[in-house]
Structures are given as C-alpha cells and as structure tokens.
Predict the structure.
Amino acid sequence: MVDEGSALRALKQKDDTALAWFIDRYAAYVSTIVYNIIGRIMTASDVEEVASDVFLVFWSNADKVKPDKIKAYLGGIARNKAKAKTRELGQDIPLEDDIIILSDVGPEHTFEKHEQAVMIKRTVLSLQYPDREIFLRHYYYCQPVAQIAEEMDMNISTVKTKLWRGRDTLKEILNEGGYENGNENLRYDGQYSR
Amino acid sequence: METKISDMMDSIQDDTVQFQIKNIASSEIIKEATMKKLQVNTNPHKRTRKVSTILIAATLATILLTGTAFAIHYFNLKDLKGPTVQIGSEQAKTLSLNGLKGSPEYEAAQEWENQVDAWHAEGKNRAASDLVPDAYSQYNAFSQEAKDTLDDILNKYNLKMHKTSSDVRSLDELYSALGISGLMPAAGDNGDYPVGGTLYDDGTLTFNGAAALPDGTDVRYQFDCFTKGTFTRVGYLLADADDFEEWTYPKSTGYNILLAISANKSIMAVNLDNSFVFVNILSGTENNDSSKTSYGAQPIDKGDLEAFADGFDFAKLSTLAK
C-alpha cells in the first residue's frame, strides 16, 4: 500500500492486508480516543478490544467511507463504540454540565434527534478556535477538563469558561430553532425516538 | 427538557483535533483481535442468513399450506390521528407513530404523553444533573412517581420496555447487525441528511435513510418498525390527515400498504401481524415550503411513492420482531 486512497480501494475489495495497513496507521489514534473515554474504568486490554471493534466496523462499512474522511470516520466510530461500552457497564462519563435544558414553554417539544444533530454540527463548527476545539475535546471526545488544559496549554478555569460559552451558544441556537422555525418535521415530544 | 450535549454530538465526525497520542495499546494485539473477529463474524453471518432464509421459506410454506396468507389489515390515516397540540400560538394536528387507534401501543402512548405533559406543566419529573440513565430514562421517566406510573401503564396494556439498543450509522451497518439484507430500498444520495438509526433487543427498529428510486429520484425518510407488545416513545408526527391524498397499495405479497401524499411530505404505513411500520417520507408533490426541512429532497408523485414502497421487503421485516 502506498497511500490511503489505494489502501481504501483494496479494503473495499475485502483485502485484509489493507485492513492490517490501516490498523498499523491508526491503532494509536483510535486507542487514544477510546482510552480518553473508557480509560478511567477499564484496562488496556479493554481498550484494545474496543479498538478492534472499531476496525471491524471500518472493514464492514468500507464502501461508505470517503478517502478524505478516513480519520474522521475512525474517530467517530471509536468515540461511539467507547461510549457504548461505558453504557454497557452502567457507567456515566463525567463531563462538565453535560445536561442542557431546552425551552420550557408549554408542552415539551423538541427536534427529532437527527435533525437536531445537523443543527448541533453547524453550531459547533461555527465556534471559533480555540472554543471549538475545547468543545469537541470535552463533549465529543470526552476528554477531562484538566487534560484539555494540559494539552492545549491553558489553565483549567479558561477551559471551563470556554465550555460554558459554547454551551450557552448551543442552547440559544437550539431553543430558537426548536420553536421559531415551524419545522414540519419536528416531532411532538419525540426526543427519544432516534 | 433535559438532554445531554455529548449524546447530541453522536453523529459528528471530526478530524481537526490533534491529540497527544498515547501508547496505551498494542497495534499488533488490535490487529490480531480484529482478524479473529473477522473470521468469526464472517461465518456466523452466513449461517444467520441461511437461518433467516429458512425461516422466511418456512413462513411462506406455512402460508401456502394453510391458505391464510399474511394478515390483511385495511386502515387509513384517520386510524392514526393523534391529539391536537399547541405549537407556539397555533394548534397543530398530529398522527400517531406507535400504532392504530385502539391498539395497546397507541393507547399507552396517549396516556403516557398526557401524563408527561401534566408533570411538565407542574414542574415535576425533572432529570437530576447526576442522573444515571436506566431503562426508564428512554421514556423520560426520571422520578420514582414517573417510573411507577409508567409501570402501571405498561402493565395495563401488557407492553414491555426495550431492554437494550444499539446504534447503526448506515444501511450496510444495519444489515450487518441484523444478518439480513434487502429490507429497504437501495441507499441513495443522502445530501446533508444524517443516515442512521437504532435497533432494539425486541426487534423494534428506527432508521433515518435515503433511498434512490428506480428513475433516479432521491428521497429521504424516517422509518419506524415497532414490535407489537413493546413500548417506544416516539411522540407524534406533526401532520394533518386532511392534507393528504391516501390510497391502499396492494403488493403481490399480500400486504396492504397505506400510502399518502401531500404537498410537502408523504407517508407509508403497514400494520403487520407482529409489528407496525410507519415511514415519514420527506418529499411531497411540491416540496415548496421553505419552512420545512426536506434536506434538498426532490418532489415525488404517486408513482414514485409506490416505487418507494416496492423497495421494502415486508416478509423480511416481519421476521424482525422477537
């Protein structure tokens, strides 16, 4: 394999040497993401187990992966697999004010979950550096505040302030979108469905 | 309404954050474990498909022998009418997603939603910030009173809660998880519409998909298949039954499919013996209301909607319920 494009083409042809090539290339990246989420409650061998599940999904879904999105795809699967593992164990991931309260006017109304996800993505991407990176590190990659501060060379209170600002922006945009755009595809009180 | 920021970010993909990479795990061990799983998974999947094929064949054989055919359940949109709800200063009509009026699933959903609204108005049943999610959380039952009430409603209608669920992010991933393929129309261009869904332990499935119709038209849809005897909290679809032109579309398999089309959205619903299928299609005859989210989907006509319905294999879908 000489590059990711040719390795991905080989993977789509179900060439397992291509899978091994990607594991060599991304094992540390995937393991780091998994470790950030489950490292506090599980062992290194558990991290390896979850990481292997990530590459198994990558193998199964190779047809859907775009050549320029391989790292993002693996990161997303790693993150979600690790989160699922914590749920399996009945554990919660300790994050700063992870619960957000949306508008409370009248009966509960909310976005259908996937439509909400589109708006979340747009909101997060609209944040400026370093706020966006801090927000992603904490709420997407579940990195502890102290670790973010260390890796980004900031003090803890600055990280917390920026997280608070991001949360506030998110809440404001979601509340506006949820009640003011008259979106026909909103589901009444349907937050759980998807 | 409380929700978790981290959960709302599940569908994001990012490669901008540069981590300090840690040498926590061995790539050789990961490689070995992955290859082992690959071998194990390949064979059982084949076996599963065979079993499924056998099951389907056996079901078909039983039908032919007994002459009962798949149950034919005629119904129309009025059988799905839900409550009128207040959206801002306006009243909005709804359709039930859980099942037909009078079914245990429909009635339980009505009771539970009314109760949740009443608690909400009184400021009760709020999730604590240190909430540890449990089986009740999926129904927004946080207080002990709410949990007890939900138990009462489920007992009254003889329904069960979902125990476990797993998320899938594509049609292929769904088929891989089920060990069955060909349930839905071939995947089409999803634009910026996020594809994915949730598969529950009892066979209930919710899935947002994008389909390519035979003439190349792309449609995006929200698919729900609820196993009867279980309870799923999905709320209601904001839609007025009177806005739709509806008809029953018989397929050669014997299933009666309710199809309905309006200017900006369409519906497909099928009442199977052991599950209820409801699909909200984000395309109508015009798709001209800018206030509605169609994710750039193209307008469709009645023929397109029938072609969309043809893409579903209801015999296979009816095997999902456990």
Notes: Chain A is about 65% helix and 5% strand.
